Amino acid sequence: MASRIVRVLGAGGGSPGMSIEQPLWRALIAFRLLALAYAVFRYAVAYEEYEHPAGGWAYIAVLTAWTLATLDRVASSERCTRPFLVADLSLALSGILLTSVLDSQDRIAAGQATLPTIWAAGSVLAYAIKGGWRWGAAASVLVGVCNVVERGDVTERNLHNIILLFVASAAVGYMIELARASERTLARALQIEAATRERERLARDIHDSVLQVLAMVQRRGNEIGGEAAELGRMAGEQETALRTLVTAGPAPAAPAAPAVPPGRTPVPASSARRSTGGGSTGGPSAGSGSTGGGDAGDGEQDLRALLGPLAGAKVSLSGPVAPVLLDAHAAREVAAAVGAALDNVRRHAGERASAWILVEEETDEVLVSVRDDGPGFPEGRLAAAEAEGRLGVAQSIRGRLRDLGGSAEFFSVPGQGAEVEMRVPRRARGGRPGTGHGGPRGRTPDGRGATR
């Protein structure tokens, strides 16, 4: 038994790697053992003063066996399950209430300790460590109520003990909540750091080879002229797309237009509008058919393929590696809304403004955000524009998303650019559910959904 206790205290039953809360579980194991020893000692010293000492010994035996048999259950959050917590607290509460039956009323009135004594606090602390301060506070209230019932009155002494247990459990629970939040934040920071280092390594390798070759082809093509100039222009677009990839994360390649040789990467948004025949929205027409390479099956399209032609020198596109499948009509409408948003960027922020498109997959919906580095707009400007009869945002963007059962939210700080977040459910109104291929959302460190 001694070797088992040492093993549980040493290993803690936790998962490999760093764990901020694991020392608390090990401390709880030590507390339960010490509290058990104290309860056994107190009863062994005073059992003759009880009216029914045999019943007390029976409870102490059960308490000892339970504590030693469940050491590994309080070694980690995964093993400390809800059914165990309920059984553990029930044993503590029953010991408190049983004291009023086994002990004499004179001893109870004199303020003698209950059968489990401070062992009951271990059950409350287990609740706090497992579920936070709310769980711990609720368990301490139950222990306090049972103490009042056992004593038959609220005295200064038991009120002091009840308040002390409540405050201690709430403090421990709040501390563990902060520890878990800090651990999650640290894990995200480490992931971002690892991804940034890998991206920088790839950027260095690509810059030393591919980008230099593409820049040389562009320069020599412009010098030679003729067909070589067209080849140089294509090399320049490839260089721009590749620089976007290594600086802003992965972006899906755009489908080649019919008149462009294979291997061409996303073209500027102005060219995309001309090739798709779109109007002022700048994206695929809402009533147009499937864009080449965009079909993922009957009634479904890859949203990345429709957004690919909108990328260019001033427009960066990022999204999942796997296809983002939506109902074909919904995908075209979202692409048209994105095109309208880019038109607004060019119209209000100027041709020199840069924009970023980010596509993200969630369990039940797809999120597309468009950000720019323009001057932004003051609060209430969109409502005023709609009141003046300018319905570009109201109809081309919000109207399209509303018809799909989604939403569009606009955010802006004057002087810091603007952002629109478009959400569309996978089962759009009148459509079929898309097939999920994405994982966790790829939010950036600032939480806004794209990088500047």
Span from first to last CA?
60 Å
Sheet-strand content, in percent, reads 5-15%
Low-confidence stretches: 11-18, 249-297, 429-452
Main pleated-sheet profile: 5 strands, mixed
Secondary-structure-derived class? alpha+beta
Give the secondary structure arrangement, pairings included.
Blueprint: H1 2-11, H2 22-46, H3 53-69, H4 82-102, H5 105-109, H6 119-131, H7 133-151, H8 156-207, H9 210-224, H10 227-248, H11 269-276, E1 295-297, E2 300-302, H12 303-307, E3 315-318, E4 325-327, H13 328-349, E5 355-361, E6 365-372, H14 381-387, H15 392-403, E7 407-412, E8 418-425
Parallel strand pairs: 3-5
Antiparallel strand pairs: 1-2, 2-4, 5-6, 6-8, 7-8
Helix pairs in contact: 2-3, 2-6, 3-4, 4-6, 4-7, 6-7, 6-8, 7-8, 9-10, 13-15
Report a brief summary of the structure.
The protein is α+β, with helices and mostly antiparallel strands and about 450 residues long.
Architecture overview:
A five-stranded mixed beta sheet has the order 3-5-6-8-7. The chain has a three-stranded antiparallel beta sheet with strand order 1-2-4. Helix content is 56%, strand content 9%. The chain is elongated and about 110 Å long. Helix 3 packs antiparallel against helix 4 and helix 6 runs antiparallel to helix 7 (133-151). It starts with a helix and ends in a 27-residue tail after the last strand. The chain has 15 helices and eight strands. The chain has helices spanning 2-11, 22-46, 53-69, 82-102, 105-109, 119-131, 133-151, 156-207, 210-224, 227-248, 269-276, 303-307, 328-349, 381-387, 392-403; strands at 295-297, 300-302, 315-318, 325-327, 355-361, 365-372, 407-412, 418-425. By secondary structure, it is an alpha+beta fold. The protein folds into two domains: 2-187, no CATH class; 250-425, Heat Shock Protein 90 (2-Layer Sandwich), CATH 3.30.565. It comes from Streptomyces thermolineatus. Residues 266-275 have a biased composition (Low complexity).
